From TrEMBL:
Residues 12-102 form the Bifunctional inhibitor/plant lipid transfer protein/seed storage helical domain. Residues 1-27 form the signal peptide. This is Bifunctional inhibitor/plant lipid transfer protein/seed storage helical domain-containing protein. The keyword Transmembrane does not apply. It comes from Vitis vinifera (Grape). The lineage of its organism: Eukaryota, Viridiplantae, Streptophyta, Embryophyta, Tracheophyta.
Length: 114
């Protein structure tokens, strides 16, 4: 399956999981979850961490990510890498604080080089 189809299928599955919970649909979280589809290639489970595009960062800035993290279904980690989500947020200058829970993932403490 071509990479673009994999990205699309991943987005469809992620969107289905997010929108199946009425919390997000009913407006619990500010912003458009659909705009985040542009970020799917950067948070797929397979492959290395890669810096996101400016378009992805712009989409992130329009969404209450902390709220989304609190409403992620427990099995979202089977479809996307929450560790990569945290990486993308850092690159986009929208980092989650250490100790923050995002789905079943807890953001680790920042480790400063000695």
């Amino acid at each position: 399956m071509p990479a673009t189809n994999v990205s699309y299928m991943t987005w469809v599955l992620v969107a289905a999981m997010l929108f199946s919970g009425s919390d997000i649909v009913s407006g619990q979280c500010q912003g458009s979850i659909q705009d985040l589809k542009i970020c799917v290639p950067y948070v797929q489970k397979k492959g290395p961490k890669i810096p996101p595009s400016q378009a992805c960062c712009d989409a992130i800035k329009g969404v209450d990510i902390l709220c989304v993290c609190h409403h992620l279904p427990p099995d979202i980690g089977e479809l996307i890498s929450i560790e990569k989500v945290v990486f993308v947020l850092q690159v986009c200058r929208e980092p989650l604080a250490p100790g923050t829970k995002c789905g079943n993932y807890t953001v680790p403490p920042n480790i400063l080089p000695a």
